[in-house]
Amino acid sequence: MKLTINNLSKTYPNGVKALQDVSLEIPKGMFGLLGPNGAGKSTLMRTIATLQDADQGTVFLDDLHVQNNKHLVRKVLGYLPQQFGVYPKMSAEILLNHLAVLKGITSKNERKEIVTSLLHKTNLYEVRKQNLGGFSGGMKQRFGIAQALLNNPKLLIVDEPTAGLDPKERNRFYNLLSEISEHTIVIFSTHIVDNVKELCTNMAIINKGKVVLKGKPLELIDNLKGKIYQKSIERTELDNYKKEYTVINDKLFLGKPIIQVYSDKPLNNGFTLIEAGLEEVYFSQINNY
Ligand code: ADP
């Protein structure tokens, strides 16, 4: 099972080039789509989810041409949008049952079985009678996943799933996605670099509508080995350093700026070599000073 995206481009009527010649191969497992706000992640995900059309390019789920077979694709697709609204006065169980009807699960017994199993899977069984309005952010997201799994999808797309979740809820949510990805293509987008390394078998970084890097997280990190240096500097020196070096990131440590620099050649004069992580991979692609 594999999703193949070929040369996808999309320009909105206002002239924004949201996708520019995007090509990706996404196998079964967890695929992390990283990029800053406005990079084009949602546009890409909505296109894969058949909710909007691209101007150019194709998407294939195995041999199935996605844009030409929207109905077939929707049968095997689960989608959790960025903004997932729930009816606050309904219980989780009742709404999930209702959504199951809408998804065409007409047999009452089958529906009961699926709904119960999904409530267990998403750890919501104990609170199934509670109104969704009283759910925490993490519980709502898990409910969102439960509804996205109603049709036992082959492809699950989740857009920025962890925004607003505390670290514990986020971990729980990621564990759930990871379990699902054993049998499913799971694509999730995020602007938070944390966790992608541990979670994703494959990833891509997208910026300004273009895929700027793709691969396996550990391999991408390995490629930066011995090339990222760090130095504590004075605030007033920052501009000069940016002119002279490939500064990929600057941050404050105890109120003083620290710069991180990419260099193929060894650097001395106060620079120390640091062990690169996924954050450095990300910033080396995003912050092209
Ligand atoms: P991301 O999900 O990475 O934040 P989006 O796909 O939402 O990125 O947006 C990519 C770019 O396209 C942004 O510049 C955004 O403002 C623009 N955009 C998104 N949707 C629309 C739309 N319907 N009309 C016009 N511009 C849009």
Q: Number of DSSP helices?
A: 10
First and last CA, distance: 39 Å
Q: Uncertain regions: pLDDT < 50 for 5+ in a row?
A: none
Largest sheet: 6 strands, mixed
String of helices and strands:
EEEHEEHEHHHEHEHEEHEHEEEH
Give the spatial strand order of the biggest sheet.
6-7-8-3-9-10
Q: Which range best describes the helical content: under 10%, 10-25%, 25-40%, 40-55%, 55-70% or over 70%?
A: 25-40%
| Strands, total number | 14
Q: Taking Cα atoms only, what radius of gyration do you get, to the nearest Å?
A: 22 Å
Helix- and strand-based class?
alpha/beta
Q: Mean of residue pLDDT?
A: 93
Small molecules held by this entry: adenosine-5'-diphosphate
Determine the strand fraction and express it as a percent band.
25-35%
Molecular structure report:
The strands form three sheets. The protein has a six-stranded mixed β-sheet, with helices on both faces. It has a four-stranded antiparallel β-sheet with strand order 2-1-4-5, with helices on one face. The protein has a four-stranded antiparallel β-sheet with strand order 12-13-11-14. Helix content is 31%, strand content 29%. It has ten helices and 14 strands. The protein is α/β, with parallel strands linked by helices. The chain is globular. The protein binds adenosine-5'-diphosphate. Adenosine-5'-diphosphate is lined by residues 12, 14, 16, 18, 35, 37-43.
